[in-house]
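Hi there,

I know you've been waiting on this one. I reran it after we fixed the sequence typo, so this is the corrected version. Both the input and the resulting structure follow.
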Amino acid sequence: MEILRTENLIKTYTMGDQSFNAVDGISFTVQQGEFVAIVGTSGSGKSTLMHMLGGVDRPTSGKIFIDGNDICSLNNDKLAIFRRRQIGIVYQFYNLIPILTAEENITLPADLDGQKPDPEKLDDIMQTLGIADKRKNLPNEMSGGQQQRVSIARALINHPAILLADEPTGNLDTKSTDDIVSLFKMTNQKYKQTIIMITHNLEIAKEADRIIRIQDGKIIGEA
């Protein structure tokens, strides 16, 4: 079942009298439960693409369908609700709220949506990600790898249609990087969670089911 489809996505930026396409006619599909890596060097357009897939930025033209919903047609309020419920995002620098505990950071998306998280699901996710013993810890009381596990748990708590990971290991040492990539594979398999990971690291990308390579805002190959 198709969970994501993009159609001729273009993102144009203008600087003075010059314009350029950071994303230049990208079209691809992702199936439900697939783990896809999007690989490109700095400036290739991969982060711009992720921001559009996550509903954080809008394309200049083209369409994005997530679970059958054309997110480009939603107004800002409806897009914010859709993003909160259907898109989980894991960032390189964790983006945890420093005054909230690990558990409070994880349940924040549900809390903002006026929902009460399922305690059993919360416990299961924290156990799966190996942070059950960090439930009451603040972010500054955890290692980088543990903080990234919390951010993954936060992205999973609402069981989103897609989970986007933007250079999720870019701020971690080698061991923590290996651990986080293994956890992505585990959550993909255990929860049938669709994952799209943006990375410049080809070795990490090889752990995904499929690799999409982009350069100069265009798809140049898939494997």
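Quick highlight: The chain is about 35% helix and 30% strand.

Best,
R. S.
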